Description:
Blueprint: H1 4-77, H2 84-91, H3 97-118, H4 123-172, H5 177-187, H6 192-204, H7 209-219, H8 223-238, H9 242-266, H10 268-291, H11 293-301, H12 303-327
Amino acid sequence: MVNADLxxxxxxxxxxxxxxxxxxxxxxxxxxxxxxxxxxxxxxxQVKVATRTAADAAANRRKQVSDKxxxxxxxxxxxxxxxLRLRLQRAGLQMTPQAFWISSAICGVICAxxxxxxxxxxxxxxxxxxxxxxxxxxGLPRWILGKMTKWRQQKFLAEMANSLDVVVRGVKSGLPLNxxxxxxxxxxxxxxxxxxxxxxxxQRIGIPLGEALERLAQRMPLPEVRFLTIVIGIQAQAGxxxxxxxxxxxxxLRSRIRMAMKVKAxxxxxxxxxxxxxxxxxxxxxxxxxxxxxxxxxxxxxxxGHFMIAVGLFWMGCGVLVMQKxxxxxx
Length: 331
């Protein structure tokens, strides 16, 4: 049998050693754990700072592009008066100025004859016919031309971002810039297709790319097109990262399109209200004419009635213009 007096000191020593080990071991492991935690925190902070720096740099580049577009837009508004031929080109019409003036004269004659044949002959009707002829010849065709130009420019902007992405991918894959423009001219929808086809055709007859893009900026007077012209011109002369600049321009274009859609959604209610208010007086007049024609005939047959109609149309036009200004947001 083992002596109990010997076992007690042995187990006591083991217990004391275990206690000392349990107290001392965390002190050695704590430094390593703390170092690991500090390293992980430092690494995460560095990654976060690097990510934030890259995001800030990209945001600054996009802001610079947006500011440059705004500056180019302000400059474009201060340009000299454009010719009728250039207006027709911007609207996408394949006609000469002489043909436009002939069409305008025919439109004016039709408007004047319509007014004369719609009412009984009087001095006021003759004056109204002259005004209608003048508006039909000089006002209505130019208004239609402006609407066509605006619609074409909006369609160009809506597709320009996709076309720039095609150029960016082509440049990154190693294709020459001229070949990328040819792809855009072949594959893009109108009016991108026709405008860039004109640029490609001008290059084929020996016109430099910078000059061809300058002519594109004249036909399509948009700050985005002007910026594209400047970027490609600088890259052709001094070199640089063309894909990055065009990529930033594409992102800015998409941001502006999203903003335009948001503004359109916010102003939809005001637009509908303006349409209802503008159509209410003619609608009521038409219903009264259908239900009680004798009641409203003095308004259509007497001089005082004609005068009241003219005054009413004038004030309705003023109201429509005011409502249009109120819902026409600039962003």
